[in-house]
Structure formats: structure tokens, C-alpha cells
Amino acid sequence: MKKTEKTETTERTERGRQPSLSVLSVLSVLSVLSCARIEPPPSGPPDTAPPQLIGIRPDSLARLPGFKGEVEFRFDEVISEGGSPSQGTGTGDLEKLVILSPTTKVPNVTWRRSRLTVRPSEGWKPDRVYRVELLPGITDLRRNRSNKGAVVSFTTGAPLPTTTIDGTVVDWSTSRPAPGALVEALLLPDSLPYRGLADSTGHISLGPLPAGEYLVRGVIDENHDLHPDPREPFDSVRLAPGKTSAGELWAFVHDTTPPRIREITVADSASATIELTQNLDPRQRLALNAVIVRSLPDSAPVRVTSLLQKPMDDSLHHPAGVPRDTTADTTRKARPGIIEAEPAPRRGARGRAPAEPQPLTSRPPLSDRLVLRVQQPWKPNGKYEVEIHGVRNVTGVAADVKGALTVSKEMAQDSTRRRARSDSLKLGPDTLKRPRPKQQQ
Question: Which of 97, 305, 311, 327 is the most exposed place for a label (fewest CB within 10 A)?
Fold first, then answer.
């Protein structure tokens, strides 16, 4: 009896401690309502403004002996780190937007939400002039891209810089200014490298730099790694102390090996195009006695009437109004390993595409082709041996080259037809003249 009363008392006590079902339901509803809070609908246009630079530290042209801090770029919003974070290898999206001089090593670039900090991987050196350039391309979290860059220069004890080097980088393969070309100024005798980029017109303005003697190079940075590579086209000039104008830097590939014949093809019934492996020295004029053409198999000599580089041959042998063969045009030749897409023309204020910069004429154009002309037409199914002495590439390396020409029957007939079409464009005799009346006797 006592045990039963104790059990009932315990059960009543436990039931009194448990909340009722109605209380639990109310609490559950309140919890759901608090979590599913309804936000007001968004209003106004979407954010399309790129991040704005609001500050740089340290101040430009500051003299900071014993500087140990970081260069900091501050923005008005959180910027994007990009798909490839900075790892000190130069492949990070933010690392590609920073040029630190004078050093050839990849700097330490750190993303800190709305800030970007830079410092050299080897640390700041005393008594030097440093230049940090932030290139256009910073984006926010909505992928709005900034088209503005910034430059800050300061010293760690050296005198304040006052020199600015200017000039123009020209791609000699097209004879046009090279937008975005890399410019490198080596301060002699220590060869401290100061680097920057040309603008959209190929113009360079690199500074402020310390005073002194410089070796200036303009480079077509094909792989966009912000460093000159041996196989990239470049040109250089030495500036004495006090000189600041580099003039026109005509960039070309500097080959240390001589050229060779890649192919010889029939151009028309009495000419052939000789394609070489390198661009030729445009100032070289090959004499007729420098070329030997033999008809095989008896090695009978063939008389040569002309041997010129293709641009000069075109200007002499293609009359006005006759379309030239563009299959051998080298002005837009693709470089090995680089896929070049045709850029879409940008529209101006009135919807018209801006005019393409005209080729510069202060130097003759480059070409890797010679045009050989002979006195007698090529024989159908004929074979010829061509030998040219002293062919010089644009770097100045010369060699004797040999090649073979095979003229098929179809090629000979086709070249004859092309020449006939070209001749048909010339004016013939006037057929509208009236015959003279017979004199009356």
C-alpha cells in the first residue's frame, strides 16, 4: 500500500515538470516565425560600379629609411581574390596585376578583403628607389572590373627620383605600335630592373626613376608574364645620363642561328617565291651573282633577272589596280604557340569603330620571303636547284641557303592562266576608232 502511494506521487510530480502540449506548439510556431523572417524586396538598380581606389600607403615620393612595412592599396568595397589565389609563383590573379621594381622575383601579394598589400619576397633593400604599379583589372564580388591603375614610388633612403623615360614600342612584324608592350629599364652598372607597360598606343612613360645611365628594352610580352623571355621580340637602346627619350623601339625576334629555306613555290610562269625560316634583313640587297639556279638533271644554268624581298618586288612588279597574292602575307603571321583571336572593334561615341593605327614608315617592313624571277618560263614537270649566297636575317646572321623547286604540269598551266588574267587588265588597242574614209580619186 505504501509502495503504490509513493509511485503515484512520483508520477504526479514528473507530469507537473513537463510542459503541456499547447505550450510546446506555441513555442514551435514562434521559433519558425523568428527564423523565417521576411525581408523587404530589393529596390533600385543593381550595383554595376567597379571598386574605387580610396587610398595608398605609403605616400608617393616619400623617403622612408629602414622601411619594413607593406605597400597597401585600399578600396571602397570588398575586392575579389579571383579564381587563382596568390601563392608566390606569379600565377595568381592578383599577382598578375602587380609590377614591383627593381626586382625580378615575384612579390608577396596578399588579399585582405578591401585591401591589397605588396612587399618584395626578399625584403626591402636600403637606399633604393621602389616603384609599385597596380595594373587595371581589379574586380569586386559582382565581377565589376576597374579600368584604372595606380603607381606609387618611394625610397628607402636614396634621393627622390626625378627621371621619366618615354618612347614608343613598335612591333616590326606589322610596323604598327604595340599596345601593352613591356618596357624594362636597367639602371647601370648594377642592372637594377625597372618595369612598366606601354599604353594602348604603344607609348611608354616609365618613371619617376633614379638618375643615371639606362639600357631600355621594349618587349612584345607574348606570354603576359611581365618578364622578357629570350624568344620574345624586343629592341633596346642605351641612354646616357641625362637622356630620357628612347625614341622608337622596333621589336623583333633576335635569332642567333642563320636562316634556311623552308619552301620554294611557283608564283607565275617565270617567278617563284622562296620562303625562309626567319625574317630577313630588310636593308640587304642581294646581287644577281649571289643566286644560282640549275635545271635538273643536267644542271644547266638558268638565267636570273631579279631576286628581291617580297615587299620590294610587290612595289615594282604589281601595277596599281591589280590585286596582289595575299597568301604569302607575313604582316599578321601567327607566332608559334600563340593563338591570336581577331579582336572585336571598339565603338566610339557615335558608334563608329576607331581607325586602326597606320604602319610606321621610318623603317622598311620585315619579310621572310624572296621572289625569284627568271628569263625563260618554268618547264612543266621540271625540277630546279636554287642556291643563294650570304642571306642575312634581321639579327645580322648570314649563311648560304639551298632549296629545290618542282614544277608540275598543273602548276605551270595555272601560273600561265594567272599571268594571262593579270595581262588582260592592261589596256589593249583602241577598237572604237573609226576607219579613215577612202580618198576620192
Answer: 327
Between CA 267 and CA 319 the distance in angstroms is 16
* Cα distances (Å, whole numbers) of residue 364 to 2, 367, 393: 121, 10, 14
CATH superfamily of 162-253: Carboxypeptidase-like, regulatory domain (2.60.40.1120)
Q: C-alpha grid cell for residue 133?
A: 604599379
For 322, list phi and psi in degrees, rounded to 5: -95, 120
Fold classification of 261-319+362-423 is Immunoglobulin-like (2.60.40)
Residue 171: closest CA among 357, 337, 313, 311? 357
The fold for domain 49-156 equals Immunoglobulin-like (2.60.40)
Tell me the pTM.
0.74
CA angle 117, 90, 152 (to 5 degrees): 40
What is the spatial distance between Cα 34 and Cα 29, in angstroms, rounded to a whole number? Answer: 9
- CA atoms of 71 and 118, how far apart (whole Å): 5
Give per-residue pLDDT as tens, 55-66: 999 999 999 999
Share of the chain above pLDDT 90, in %: 67
